[in-house]
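Team,

Forwarding the record for the chain on the shared tracking sheet. I've put the sequence and predicted structure together so nobody has to dig through attachments.
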Amino acid sequence: MINLSYRKNSKEYIDDPQLDTRILRQTYQELKIINIGALGYWPTMSVVEYFLTRCGRDRVIRILDNGSHD
């Protein structure tokens, strides 16, 4: 079983700038399948739908994805 009681501080494989683009593309495709199956997109898309309904579909909205690294 995976131990989730602490945060791992090592670099992730996917963050390697030398990673083969074929592996990266395959990884993203697998993550896409997992996110669809686990309804991972639902929270984001429901918020986008809320703002489009409230602001009007003819307006441009901008979304900032603010990630962080240690």
